[in-house]
Specification:
About 50% of the residues lie in helices and about 10% in strands. By secondary structure, the chain is of the alpha+beta class. It folds into 4 domains: about 150 residues, Beta Polymerase, domain 2, CATH 3.30.460.10; about 90 residues, Hydrophobic Seed Protein, CATH 1.10.110.30; about 100 residues, no CATH class; about 45 residues, no CATH class. The longest helix has 16 residues. Bound molecules: cytidine-5'-triphosphate. The site of cytidine-5'-triphosphate has 9 residues, from helix 7.
Length: about 425
């Protein structure tokens, strides 16, 4: 079958053609591969591209980087290289490889191989297809495991019976793709999953690898359906014996973030997975949560946000009064990570708390002073420590509408300075 790549978004098509032409110049067979092929066949939008090269993928990435004036990110150990184009389109290059697992669940040892080897090491038939992009076979689909048939019939199926024990994170991936694409894990695979869940292989994977898949699951549109499915498959234990998924809270949290996602002001300011994770771990004690955070290798910044979420009750209590001034709301919330605030918004059903949080997110958090440290400094002889304090007081006044323009800000600054005897 030949895929009409010219029907792709023009930008993506041009990249694919350019990469194919560069590979031709160096006589390197090259293919688009994996999830991208799945998404091309499903006519989904493509944002990133994965290429497999039969030969030196890093060399090709370096050549392209020079031609496009980009800096490649190279991982020689894994034979991979990444180029990030101006509009954030990510191109991943890998040398075709064989993976040999020294024991079930181990990270694979990698050897150079052919495209067929590379496809065979992949998870599901729908993710194990390739499209050739050299000029003489441009668009030819390579589908050794009937992935396109499974795509049409909506089936998630591994390539061989050892696949889940080789890599038990594939249980999470099967659920993720099943729910995302509204497919079904085929019945033979359900048996394999059941067996794997009972086997020792499940413990052979580091928690960090499971957690990376959980994070991907959390940010899926259908996250809730994924977690429900994990419960049905009795696969929740993969995430950790103590996690009790509060599906109701998870569902409230998911609908809550939708409003904030639409707000340009917050774009790029939060990690979606964290506040859903807060909903997942909400029943845990500080102690168990700290252990879990350590086991999952969560970094300090994220750790801080997650641990703050355990203070949800106290914070909600403080916000539950009706007549709070803007500056009071600011003082309660301003030190908290955005994810924690959103989580509390979802957690509580108290109307006042919700109104106060919305007021904070929609207005208070966006209030900015028109004067800066230099303006305050020019009022004369103020120590840097005092400048910070004056600015904080000015901001509170501005939030409460006591000053409106720069002149009023500076007048108030003078008054604060005088009152403090500075
Ligand atoms: N893969 C695999 N086994 C894993 C992880 C990944 O075989 N445990 C392969 C699959 O072929 C997959 C590709 O590596 O398609 C890329 O992995 P990933 O980016 O996680 O999957 P995508 O299919 O690209 O998923 P998404 O659409 O969520 O980006």
């Amino acid at each position: 079958m030949v895929i009409a790549l010219n029907k792709l978004d023009k930008k993506i098509f041009n990249i694919v053609r350019k990469v194919g032409q560069s590979a031709d110049k160096h006589s390197l067979p090259i293919y688009v591969v994996g999830g991208v092929v799945r998404d091309i066949l499903l006519k989904k939008d493509i944002f990133d591209l994965d290429f497999v090269v039969e030969g030196d993928g890093i060399k090709l990435a370096n050549i392209l980087a020079r031609e496009l004036n980009l800096k490649p990110i190279v991982h020689s150990k894994f034979g991979t290289a990444t180029l990030i184009l101006q509009d954030n389109i990510r191109l991943d290059f890998v040398s075709a490889r064989k993976e040999v697992y020294s024991y079930p669940g181990a990270l694979p040892n990698v050897e150079l191989g052919k495209l067929a080897d590379d496809l065979f090491r992949r998870d599901f038939t729908i993710n194990a297809m390739a499209i050739a992009i050299n000029q003489d076979n441009f668009g030819v689909l390579i589908d050794k495991f009937n992935g396109s048939e499974d795509l049409s019939s909506g089936i998630i199926r591994v390539l061989h019976d050892k696949s889940y024990t080789d890599d038990p994170t594939r249980i999470l991936r099967a659920v993720r793709f099943e729910q995302r694409l509204k497919f079904s894990i085929n019945s033979h695979d359900l048996g394999l999953i059941k067996k794997t869940l009972k086997s020792k292989a499940i413990n052979s994977v580091g928690q960090v690898r499971y957690f990376n898949e959980i994070k991907k699951m959390i940010v899926e549109e259908n996250a809730l359906a994924c977690f429900k499915r994990l419960r049905i498959l009795k696969a929740e234990k993969i995430i950790g014996a103590r996690i009790r998924l509060d599906l109701k809270l998870l569902s409230k949290t998911i609908s809550n973030i939708k409003g904030v996602k639409r707000d340009k002001f917050y774009q790029g300011q939060y990690s979606s997975w964290i506040f859903l994770f807060m909903a997942m771990v909400s029943p845990l004690s500080v102690n168990s949560l700290s252990k879990l955070i350590k086991r999952f290798g969560i970094n300090n910044h994220d750790r801080n946000a997650i641990l703050h979420s355990l203070k949800k009750e106290g914070i909600a209590q403080a916000l539950s009064q009706r007549q709070l001034k803007g500056s009071q709301i600011y003082c309660i919330l301003n030190q908290l990570p955005l994810e924690t605030i959103l989580f509390i918004r979802a957690y509580t059903s108290n109307k006042n708390v919700n109104v106060n949080i919305d007021h904070y997110l929609q207005r208070i958090a966006k209030v900015k002073l028109l004067s800066d440290g230099n303006d305050i400094k020019s009022l004369g002889n103020i120590a840097p420590k005092e400048i910070g304090k004056i600015i904080s007081k000015l901001l509170l006044a501005k939030i409460d509408g006591l000053v409106k323009n720069k002149k009023e800000e500076l007048n108030l600054a003078k008054k604060i300075k005088l009152d403090a005897g500075l």
